Automatic annotation (TrEMBL):
SUPFAM superfamilies: EGF/Laminin, S-adenosyl-L-methionine-dependent methyltransferases. Gene3D superfamilies: Vaccinia Virus protein VP39. The keyword Disulfide bond applies. It comes from Triparma strigata. This is EGF-like domain-containing protein.
């Protein structure tokens, strides 16, 4: 919609100024010739008078004569010249203002047109968000937006507090805030190296439209920027919300639940049927969780059933079949706690859980290394870890084995190498560990994954 043309304050002021100048000029001229006020003047300024004094006589005849002789030719020319100059100034100002206004209108119209044709706008600014505020949007729209616009920033922020609580024999530092500490070993961000990431090195150029400047040869991509993570999250939300109709009424289905059940061997290594898993948490549940299928298949009970998922509010509102949609999980009323946050905030809990579960999550997060440390700290010594993920050594640097940005890269920005997982899992006694070629789901549907399905108990100490 065009902005209505209105009289600007600046233009009004200019017109008033012109009128004022004319009034003052007229008043002065008339006053000089026709005013009845007696004005003292010197003898040299007066012409002949009847009384010979210093004040000129003022009478109607003289006034009429003065009016008849005003203005003179010179006065008229000067006045008309001033008026012409002022008119030119006003016209020029109006033309400039009009051009500026037209330019602003054109810019606004371009923005409106772009907004109407581009379903994905500022994903961090809260205007419209893929999967949440854009009815009908999907993950393809998210990919198109990223390819066209990238993201706002590639600045990565590591965790301030990186210690491992009671494991005093481990390095407890924060890697000089240039990396993440996992069980005493620093994994450095791009641009830093050394045992405590104390040495600066060359860093790839950040373009804000690929993941190259997040990648290290040692660890792969273990942390990304917040705006890059938002892109991945909104694409994920768009996918689940777009598939909501297919899942309606099928609580606890989807997200390869049957595959995970099979590759964990029906969770037999978790414990005997009917065991109580104590204070239980699943991190990164999506709408349906992996744990509820396990609970029902094995008859497990819990003291607390904690769901930690950064998209929990959205799923509960928009995805039919979400198992915690009313804030409770069927069969666990009064024991369910839903936390709308990612595993990066699990550091709020210290040795609070008897059982921690995380399945196929780390490739979707903001900082995979910090989450691994948080999982370790949140679990009680002797507590049970149920863990699945893949490592990405065979992928190499971004763009070397696949496109720099495609749907898989958009959804899975975190691509950590095996060395990171091995460092984390070294803190646990192995109960179950199925890897690589042994995992059926890693080699079905055209997949060629490497990784682990792991169940273990946290060591009582790392010393």
């Amino acid at each position: 919609m065009r902005i209505p043309k209105v009289m600007r304050t600046k233009q009004v002021a200019q017109i008033i100024a012109v009128v004022a100048v004319l009034c003052i000029f007229f008043t002065q001229q008339v006053g000089d010739h026709s005013s009845s006020t007696v004005v003292p003047v010197s003898a040299s300024q007066t012409g002949p008078s009847d009384n010979g004094g210093g004040y000129p006589p003022i009478h109607p005849t003289a006034g009429e004569q003065a009016l008849k002789s005003w203005p003179g030719p010179g006065d008229t020319d000067a006045l008309l010249a001033k008026i012409a100059t002022l008119e030119q100034t006003v016209a020029a100002q109006e033309a400039g203002d009009t051009a500026a206004l037209k330019a602003k209108i054109a810019t606004l119209e371009q923005k409106v047109a772009a907004q109407e044709t581009q379903p994905a706008t500022n994903l961090q600014g809260g205007e419209k968000v893929i999967g949440r505020n854009l009815p009908g949007a999907n993950s393809q729209a998210a990919l198109k937006h990223v390819l066209a616009n990238g993201w706002e920033s590639s600045d990565v922020h590591v965790t301030q507090d990186q210690h491992h609580r009671n494991d005093i024999c481990l390095y407890q530092g924060n890697c000089n805030l240039h990396g993440e500490n996992i069980l005493g070993r620093c994994f450095c961000l791009p641009g830093f190296t050394g045992p405590e990431c104390e040495e600066a090195t060359d860093k790839p150029l950040c373009t804000n439209n690929d993941d190259k400047c997040f990648y290290t040869e040692e660890a792969g991509v273990f942390a990304i920027s917040l705006s890059r993570w938002h892109m991945a999250q909104e694409a994920e939300l768009a996918m689940w919300n777009g598939n909501a109709g297919k899942k309606a009424g099928k609580a606890g289905t989807g997200d390869r639940i049957d595959e995970h059940l099979k590759d964990f061997s029906n969770y037999v290594s978790v414990g005997a049927d009917g065991n109580n898993l104590g204070n239980f948490i699943e991190v990164g549940t999506g709408p349906w969780t992996q744990s509820l299928t396990m609970m029902k298949a094995r008859g497990f009970s819990v003291n607390k059933y904690v769901i930690m998922e950064p998209g929990a509010i959205n799923y509960a509102a928009n995805t039919p079949g979400t198992v915690y949609r009313d804030g409770q999980i069927d069969g666990f009323d009064g024991k369910t706690v839903v936390i709308n946050a990612g595993g990066e905030h699990l550091d709020l809990f210290y040795e609070a859980f008897d059982t921690v579960m995380i399945v196929n999550v780390l490739e979707h997060v903001l900082n995979g290394a910090s989450i691994l440390r948080n999982l370790y700290n949140a679990l009680k010594p002797g507590g049970l870890l149920i863990f699945q993920d893949r490592w990405w050594d065979q992928e190499g640097a971004p763009g070397s084995e696949r496109a720099e940005m495609d749907m898989d890269v958009l959804f899975h920005p975190i691509r950590m190498k095996k060395v990171v997982f091995e460092q984390f899992l070294s803190g646990f006694e192995v109960i179950y560990d199925r890897r690589d070629e042994e995992v059926a789901s890693f080699h079905t549907g055209g997949r060629n994954y490497e990784g682990t399905y792991f169940i273990g108990r946290k060591k009582m100490t790392q010393c």
